[in-house]
Task: structure prediction
Amino acid sequence: MPSALLLFLFWQPEPAALGMKDIEGQKVDLAVAHFAAALEATPEDRSANFHYSLALSMVKPRPRSHRRLRTGAR
Result:
């Protein structure tokens, strides 16, 4: 029984799995953070890299950037 308790205490879900749940739940800011953590742990993970980019593309632009795009002013 103590080994099950230790396993429960030390088991942490993978950041990439948490990021996928966040994308599905429309929690894009959390997804970006989780995929960034996954890439820090394993930089060669192409799936985490793709989903990190996807999550970044889903983040709403800041109002200033949006205003620049509409007016064409720099």
User: Anything to note?
Assistant: The helical segments are 2-10, 15-24, 28-41, 46-58, 63-71.
